[in-house]
Fold this sequence. Notes:
Layout: H1 2-19, E1 25-29, H2 38-51, E2 59-63, E3 79-83, H3 89-107, E4 111-114, H4 120-127, E5 134-137, H5 149-156, E6 160-163, H6 166-176, E7 183-185, H7 202-208, E8 214-219, H8 231-244, E9 248-253, H9 259-268, E10 275-279, H10 283-290, E11 295-298, H11 306-313, E12 318-321, E13 337-339, H12 344-356, H13 364-375, H14 377-393
Parallel strand pairs: 1-2, 1-4, 2-3, 4-5, 5-6, 6-7, 8-9, 8-11, 9-10, 11-12, 12-13
Helix pairs in contact: 2-14, 4-5, 8-12, 13-14
Amino acid sequence: MLLNKTNKSYSLKLFKSQHIKKLNHIFVFLEVFSREGGIQSYVKDVFRAYEALPEPIKAEVFLLRDEKGCVNPFESERLQFHYFQTKSSQLGRARMTWALLNRLIHQRPDHVFCGHAYLAPLVGMLCQPLGIPYTVMTHGKEVWQRLPKLTKANLQKAEQIWTVSHYTRGIASDANDLNTDKIKILPCAVNGDRFTPGPKPADLLERYGLRGAKVLMSVTRLWSGDIYKGVDVTIQALSQIAEVFPEVKYLIIGRGDDQPRLAKLAEDLGVQDRVVFAGFVPTEELVYHYRLADAYVMPSQEGFGIVYLEAMACGVPVLSGDADGSADPLQNGKLGWRVPHRDRDAVATACIEILKGDDRRCNGEWLRKEALASFGIEAFQKRLQQQFLEGVRS
């Protein structure tokens, strides 16, 4: 009889131990480390916020298009990563689906965070039957138009939707019949310790031939699918700007398959001597490149535009498009110039105003202070940590 009681007690303890929640969260992303961009920068800030959580909370991260062996500084006991990049995209997706389902069934996480709307059908399909709440992160253009029926349905069924700007919340909810009460604004952030003002580095001035120049700068992918970034429009505006500032040059940081078209455009317009393609610049060197700029110019259509924050944190005045999420970092024009994103005359006029330097928005010290007050990394971490902790306690 005693043996039976002992066995039952042992069995009960074993049952309980098998059902203790050791996994609080699961994150599912397309890619983070194999590609550079605003989304990837945002996700890395999410990881930093997660690492700073005050409680012993753990998560596993599923990466569809990143491969094992990539440079990942976030691997830890708190954040464990799984990579599913294969030569066959379908095979990689199948493997990730199976691994994710296994974790959901056996470890019952408190919450799943889906890092992109494109992954919402997969995450929703797996989480809903198991009663596991999930949040979908949205960033910008991917949700500005009507989504496929399945994607839309799984966004609607999410417990929460995160997005980075008021513009995206409004346009996405209208296009896809989303409940705005579910949509949380969690804007991008800038690390004010990393991005700081300073003198123009002499070695970079020499490298790019910028001594004595008034420097316009853009940091962006140069992909043919990203023409909306407005690099071509800025090139088209250079002749007008040069009439007032003959020493103007345009430094373009980034890489991609659209560079030959942009170089040809500059040649056709006779401004090739004013355009400098710097190529890819590592994150740790970006601050020194921002310091080269007299104006950061990107008349784009952004979901938010973290590059504007980086420039402002370095004390550099900024120009953006006027019909996108950049309204948030530029505070509806309080901190920078917002112009129609395909209007080269408007871009030229605004650039000339910036280079004259008479406007308060050209005061680097004031600009940095205002940007960090609203979008510093500490405020970002507090907002995110509150979201994570609420998910665990619910």
